[in-house]
Every structure is written in C-alpha cells, then in structure tokens.
Amino acid sequence: MRIEILVFPGVDELDVLGPFEVFRGAEEAGADIRTQLVSLDGDQHIKASYGLTFDVDGAVGSDGRADLLVIPGGGWVKRATHGAWAEFHRGLIPAAILDAHRSGTILASVCTGAMLIAAAGLLRNRSATTHHAAIEELRASGAEIVSARIVDDGDIITAGGVTSGIDLALYIVERFVGKDMADGIASNLEHERRGPIHVSSSARRSDETRIVS
Amino acid sequence: MRIEILVFPGVDELDVLGPFEVFRGAEEAGADIRTQLVSLDGDQHIKASYGLTFDVDGAVGSDGRADLLVIPGGGWVKRATHGAWAEFHRGLIPAAILDAHRSGTILASVCTGAMLIAAAGLLRNRSATTHHAAIEELRASGAEIVSARIVDDGDIITAGGVTSGIDLALYIVERFVGKDMADGIASNLEHERRGPIHVSSSARRSDETRIVS
C-alpha cells in the first residue's frame, strides 16, 4: 500500500507528523506500507505553520498513483498567507486532489485538509468532519457534517483537528492492515486511541478498499 | 521564557514536534515564550528516527542559557545506530545536559530522553518516568520510578512515551504561563489532556521556577 502525505507551505506540523510516524511505524513493524511526504511540484523544502522546515520526498503522484493520499491542514483559522486557506483559494492542490480521486486514490484528511477536498467539489452530500473552527465552512461546501473524530465515507475519510490525525492513521492501519498492528503502534506511542469513529453505511458495504490483508 | 528542544540524529519525530507545536502555539497566543530547535554542534540538518529530515535553529546554549531544555528520545528500544541509545553511550549530549542543569536550566524529557538525563547522573534518587519499554533501565540508573504520565520533580520534569510529550508541554505551559493558555492550546489541537501528573513534594514547595507569570 503506497501512501502519500501531501504537504504545502504553512501546513500544520502535527497534522503531517502524526500520520507520518504511525504509518512509518507500521512499516517498521512489518506492514506492507510505504509512506512518502510529497509536495505539489516536488519542492524540496517546506516551511510549516509553526516554523519547522523539512524535506520532501518528491512530487505528488511522481511514483505513480498512490493508494491513499493524506491531506493535512494548517493556518485555516488564522487565514495565513501560507496554509490550507491560501491553497483553498489558489486551487492547485484541490485540482491535484480531484485528479488523484478520479484515478482511484482514497483520500484522507486531517484537520482543515478537509476544506481542500471540499474545494475539489468532492464533499457535496458526503459525510465528513474537520477542525471544530471550520465546521460551518465545511457545511457550507455541501458536506453532511458528522460529529465524530473520524468519518469514514469509503473512498474519502476525514478527521477532526490536529491530534485526530494520529487516530485517523491508526484507524487506517486497522482498516487496511489489522487491529493488532494499530493497537501495537498506539501502545508504542503511549497513545490512548480516541473516537468516535463514524463509518458510513456505504463504506461498510464496500470491501474493495481492503488493499492490504 | 526561552526554551530549547535538543535534537540529535535518530530523535523521535513526535517527541520533538509535539512539544514544539504546543510551545510555538503558546507563543502565537501571546505567551512570553521563545522556542528553538537546537543540536549539540549546531548541525543544520537532522534526520530523525522515521526518516524526517528537518532544519535546526542553532547550537544548544548558543543564545545563552535557556530557561528550559527539552530532551526528546527515540530509537532506544531498537538500539538504533542513531538515537537516544547511541547518544547515551557517546556521552556528549549527557555532558551538555549536565552543563545546562548546573547553570540553572530546568530539564524536561520526553520518552527515552529521560535516559540521557540519567546518563548525566542527574536522576539518582529523583522521581522520574520514561517510555514503558525503558522503565527498568531507568530504575537501574537509580531513579525512583513513578507510575505517571508526567513526573514534575521541580527542576527535572520527565514524561512517558512519545505522545506524552504533548501533555508534558501543556503541563509546562500551565505551570509557567497558566491553565487557560494550556487548555486553549489543547482545544486548538483537539487534544484531550491526559495524566496522571505527579508533582513531587519538593517541587510543590518551590516557587522560584515560575518564570513567566
């Protein structure tokens, strides 16, 4: 299972690194998962919301279609010059998200990353959540807001704010690898998993997304 | 209040970024806190335990004595060539920690960062904790193990594994800035604060460490 985490200037550090450490931890523990940090154009350095500057592995999709694309948020509420709000209006990342979704990639957002999926027009009449401070904006995009930490709507999975990214990634490991693996990683992180997790009935009917058994 | 987070090759990503985002968040919210990522020699790039490569702001202590030095862990259990176990045996970081402590800097460890404070000889007969997989090694160093997520022993504060670093940093913000600030940051992170927090009686008697009022 190939996972890409799509980063951009002003992205929230923990939105990125929570899922990153969970997925790389699963890989170290033997899961058939490969996780990369990717940017839109393959920019090599990204300066995140709180000032961390870090390296990126390449451009989104440059190794072919990913099975799962993680979309973090950051800087939304403060309307930062760099961040999810800026990318919502610039439109290039939403376009890349739309392309990925059309080619069959599962989308998973952390925090206000959901607004970037909404900007791609993909959350209309779909169950979703986001950071509590952006809920009304997500609703205005046409999404059906669910009061849960993680909302699994099949090919689009959304999560609440920042630290919910850890629970999102553990849920994804549980869904695609198994519960023992997810619980083992949570224990290693000394993280008490939190919900609620909402799984849409359409998502429950679908089995084709169980990529890793 | 000047905070340095001491990073090294193989350091755990979330051990570093949890406290980093909490402290920088407090700074953005108006607290008189300045937080920097520092390395022993001022190396500009650090490759962390799960492969993240990130930039460092400078060398430990290069801007003068910090009020608080955060010591993350990483790679201990797997005896990684780079990480806390390697630094424990190399001895240079423990020596820098000892220097900082002698000059009056408060120490705060996340995860197996406690083993680096132990290597400096500073945890003998002191209340402390660490990642659950390193508890017996910490006990063997002479520390009095306390079963808590955070152990405040006054000028040395230790925390459990990985995600406990978020709770540690929130506790530090609460201790030195105030509870409202800490709760506001936790809410922004959608993080449910977790304990138990153990405060040693000697720490409770001391007020001189309340740097920011």
Secondary-structure topology with pairs:
2 copies of one chain form a homodimer.
Chain A: E1 2-6, H1 13-28, E2 34-39, E3 45-47, E4 53-55, E5 58-59, E6 68-71, H2 84-90, H3 92-102, E7 106-109, H4 113-119, E8 127-128, H5 135-140, E9 144-145, E10 150-152, E11 156-159, H6 164-176, H7 179-188, E12 197-199, H8 201-205
Parallel strand pairs in A: 1-2, 1-6, 2-5, 6-7, 7-11, 8-9, 10-12
Antiparallel strand pairs in A: 3-4, 10-11
Notes on the structure:
- Two copies of one chain form a homodimer.
- Chain A is α/β, with parallel strands linked by helices.
- Chain A has one domain: 3-Layer(aba) Sandwich (Rossmann fold), CATH 3.40.50.880.
- Chain A is 35% helix and 19% strand.
- In chain A, the strands form three sheets. In chain A, strands 5-2-1-6-7-11-10-12 form an eight-stranded mixed β-sheet, sandwiched between helices. A two-stranded antiparallel ribbon of chain A has the order 3-4. A two-stranded parallel sheet of chain A has the order 8-9.
- The C terminus of chain A is likely disordered.
- The interface between A and B is medium-sized, with 32 and 32 residues.
